[in-house]
Amino acid sequence: MKEIKIKKPIKIRKPTRSYTGIMWITNGTNKKYLAPDFDNRCAYCDDSDEYSGGYNSFHVEHFAPKEKFKHLEFTYDNLLYSCSYCNISKSNKWIGSNENESVLGNKGFIDPCNDDYYNHLGRDQNGNIISLTPLGEYIYYELKLYLKRHFILYNLDQINIRRRALKAKIKEKEEHGEDTRKLVKVHRLVCEIFCDYYDLLVKEEA
Ligand SMILES: [Zn+2]
Q1: Ordered DSSP codes for 114-175
Q2: Residue 82 Cα, ligand 1 centroid: separation in angstroms?
Q3: What is the pTM (predicted TM-score) of this model?
Q4: Domain residues for 53?
Q5: Fewer C-beta neighbours within 10 Å, C or N terminus of the chain?
Q6: Angle 25-29-31 from CA coordinates, rounded to 5°
Q7: Please, which pLDDT band fits residue 4 given cuts at 50, 70 and 90?
Q8: Are residues 142 and 154 both part of a single domain?
Q9: pLDDT tens digits along 90-106
Q10: Nearest to 31 by CA among 93, 111, 87, 95
């Protein structure tokens, strides 16, 4: 059996809904509150909207589908900020016979605001999303979490964190009149890697 080393959780941070129990009756208003609650990241795959079409391309996802549970269409506790890929893949899939029955056996979905989500999905050392359990495998395939774009966007994000930190360090050294040549070289290299991943993303979307 192939050994998988888990290095990281699927998401940088577990999101929390700040407006539990509240209902705004437009998705536009809900989305304004969902974006910061979810750190401008897809609830399921953690893609940042920064390199992925921005706020306008992200969707308001209904955990329990609104086609089956009309009364939950604007219930904040049922809503998620989601990339179009996960939202469209999930569509109106729902295994249970009522709104509270999101899992039956090894099939179904878990709300990523729930701790249990992180027991079923993770990331390997390269940033690929991996399933950890049979239920995780169901979610992985149903949401198409195997798409290459998720791996590319994760790495773009990680490289960008390093790029920004290096830039800040160079600025700090410059202010103290220190030699920055080595750091500038590393920064240039990191920028080149960033561009390589960006090209990959553009190719993937073409
Ligand atoms: Zn997503």
Answers
A1: STTHHHHEEEETTS-EEE-SHHHHHHHHHTTTT-HHHHHHHHHHHHHHHHHHHHHHHHHHHH
A2: 5
A3: 0.90
A4: 6-146
A5: N
A6: 115
A7: low
A8: no
A9: 999 999 999 999 999 99
A10: 87
